[in-house]
Amino acid sequence: MQTIEHEITLNIHLIHEPVTVGDWVLLNEEQKFVRCLTRQSEFSRKSPGSKVNKQLIASNIDTVFIVSSLNNDFNLSRIERFLSLANEAHVDPVILLTKADLCLDPYQYIDQIHQIDSLLIIEAMNALDENSIQRLLPWCKSGQTIAFLGSSGVGKSTLINKLLGNTEQLTGEIREDDSKGKHTTTGRSLHIMDNGALLLDTPGMRELQLVACEEGINETFSDISHLALQCKFTDCSHQNEPKCAVQAALSAGSIDERRLTNYFKLLKEQARNGATLAEQRASDKSFQKHINSTQKQTKAVKRQ
Length: 304
Known about the structure:
Number of domains: 2
Structural class: alpha/beta
Number of helices: 8
Order of helices and strands: EEEEEHEHEHEHEEHHHH
Number of strands: 10
Radius of gyration: 23 Å
CATH topology of the largest domain: Rossmann fold
């Protein structure tokens, strides 16, 4: 069961709702697609590029391992972006900080992430070390599906290979000058451990724009969203309005300017993408109504 993407494309023309890796599908006695079972969770993003379309990443995930290297790849704003995606899907996130063996002080990075959320589970590890891998096993139980998300070169495929006990996934080196990795994983794939756990590998995501993710963002930035409820005006933009609780907290140093800037950025991004998708759906419905009306008129003329 190395990859199922090619399998679920069977009879894809019969499927109205697109399927993605992690979906459970019902087949009939002839092994033809009947329907996709209801998803327990769904990861999606705006499709890469200039066009605004929703792209499914994975479904039915129980735990997401957000993987970041303890080198120049480490980026708090990117971690917050992945956390927003996980929180929107109501999936438990675990932060994996790889290449700990090459870092002089991993705890400085752990402290930075705990400033985002003191309750976040964080594991600093060496992806090639057996003891580090053992710490991941409590999440990798029979019937559980675990997704690995992160940039290229952070060690997602290496971690999966160690958990599987083989080398199913290709791995690659990173560039020393900027710590960036090459795309060794080019497609999403699902792998099964001996104990029945499912591991979902994903390509490194250079572009992860959010769409329809307001709940996930507000949960990730719960300290700021709770402050926003204390503002004098309900429509406060948290810029120059009087008695703005968010700006007061910023001036007092109780919230970080980088974090506040990223909060505004992600809210604006998902609102813009969501509005564009809504316009597209409305346009598609209007076009379909036009097609249906034209077909009815054509049939009426033929009957005459």
